[in-house]
Amino acid sequence: MAVTDPPRPRLQVPLLDLKPQYQALRAEILAVLEKVCASQAFILGPAVRELERRIAEYSRCRHGVGVSSGTDALLVALMALDIGPGDEVITSPYTFFATAGTIARAGARPVFCDIEPGTYNLAPGAVGSFLEQQCESRGGELIHRRTGGRVKALMPVHLYGQVADMTALMALAGRYGLRVIEDAAQAIGADDAEGRRACSFGDIGCLSFFPTKNLGAFGDAGLCVTNDAGLAERIEVLRVHGAKPKYYHASIGGNFRLDELQAAVLNVKLPHLDAWSAARRRNAACYDRGLAAAGLGEAVRTPHADPRARHIYNQYVLRVRDRDRLRQHLADAGVGTEIYYPVPLHLQQCFAYLGHRAGEFPEAERAARETLALPIYPELGERELTYVVDSIAGFYR
Ligand SMILES: *Cc1c(COP(=O)(O)O)cnc(C)c1O
After folding, report:
1. Residue 72's closest CA among 107, 111, 109, 102?
2. What does the pLDDT look like over 84-137, one tens digit per residue?
């Protein structure tokens, strides 16, 4: 080894390691997979129905419909609410691409409003100003003056596992007659300060079981929950190409089915979800304490979370000074991090046709420049967490 080589990291702390969770449940999961294989019933079988019932109950909703991914949950929710060409949906510019991508794929126009700097969630103040100043009621429809589009729905995102300000957003939706689709892909089991659960506020809640979410499948999977029996039925029909009965199509849907094998895995994992989310909260509290004790002042801002609410920390995201150099320093120390999200959606090339400019949503743009996600998965130990804190403190000293 050359004398100039950097010292080897004392510890490796990856952003996420799914292997310990699998090892703990391996025998049980392999047994249910074997059961599905023995039955050779791979499509919409008993495991899907069981998962739908249990996730609906967990999310405090009456109905659940399993779908192929979180993205397809959002898309089919928009389709079920008849949102399409000529319609507009208000959402956040600072989220995973699928939120606005599905609005555009449904044929509608995403309308972005800025976020709160503390929680990174859609700012009710910004939504209220848009509705009040840029829209008007014409013939029973809410029209966006500049585009002439019909503003039909609100799609808040419970980013990183923290419920958006749904009290204020639902009040706006009520006042302006908007439907509400909750993008709860990162927030299964999160509660707001009044103890109300993600997905239980709006018309349809959308969940993702992508492997990195708090409840992760062995591939792609998702679910829609709702309290409206009519909407649940529409989603069920759209999930199988809009067929009802089979081979008769009154509407055009898609193949949005949840795989039986994925549902079987998720049924094994679901009873552990609360303990995993509690472990993420414990890890977050450990970071909060450690970083406060390190006395880094303005250089590092820990996540803003209402102590009365239940944040499930799908991500633990810092706002930091000199973000990109800190990230390199942590990589050299063996600590995995990620930037969620480096380019806000209004500045994505594919949305150039919306005509947005840099500077239009300053909080979203600042978040994209300043934030960094740390490893937060449940199996992390105190030794790893302390090492991450020390590595951050070392960078600023
Ligand atoms: C993960 C995610 C999605 C999409 O879920 P997939 O299952 O990956 O399709 C949508 N919105 C947000 C906010 C997400 O984090």
Report:
1. 102
2. 999 999 999 999 999 999 999 999 999 999 999 999 999 999 999 999 999 999
208 pocket-lining for ligand 1 (C-beta < 6 Å):
yes
User: Cis before residue 341, ω within 30 degrees of 0?
Assistant: yes
CATH fold of the domain at 273-396: Aspartate Aminotransferase, domain 1 (3.90.1150)
Residue 185 CB–ligand 1 contact under 6 Å: yes
- In this prediction, residue 312 has a pLDDT band, given cuts at 50, 70 and 90, of very high
Residue of the CA atom closest to atom 13 of ligand 1? 96
Query: Which residue among 210, 215, 340 has the greatest number of ligand 1 atoms within 8 angstroms of its CB, and so is best to mutate?
Result: 210
Query: Mean pLDDT, to the nearest integer, of 289-302?
Result: 96
241 touches 254 (CB < 8 A): yes
CATH 3.40.640.10, domain 22-271, yes or no? yes
Q: Could you identify the atom of ligand 1 that is nearest to the CA of residue 158?
A: 13
- Ligand 1 atom closest to 221 (CA): 7
* Contact assessment for residue 115 and residue 177, using Cβ atoms and an 8 Å cutoff: no
**Each residue's pLDDT tens digit, 127-162:** 999 999 999 999 999 999 999 999 999 999 999 999
Tell me the residue type at 251.
S
User: To the nearest whole percent, how much of the chain has pLDDT over 90?
Assistant: 97
Any residues with CB less than 8 A from the CB of 3 and at least 6 apart, and which? none
In the predicted model, what is the mean pLDDT of residues 264-273? 98
Domain regions of the chain by residue span? 22-271, 273-396
Residue 27 has pLDDT above 60, yes or no: yes
Nearest residue by C-alpha to atom 2 in ligand 1: 185
Q: pTM higher than 0.90 for the full model?
A: yes
Q: Which helix (H) or strand (E) holds 301?
A: strand 300-301
Looking from the CA of residue 157, the nearest atom of ligand 1 is: 13
Q: Is 314 in the pocket of ligand 1 (CB under 6 A)?
A: no
306 CB burial (10 A radius; 0-12, 13-18, 19+) = middle
Query: 136 alpha carbon to ligand 1 midpoint, in Å?
Result: 32
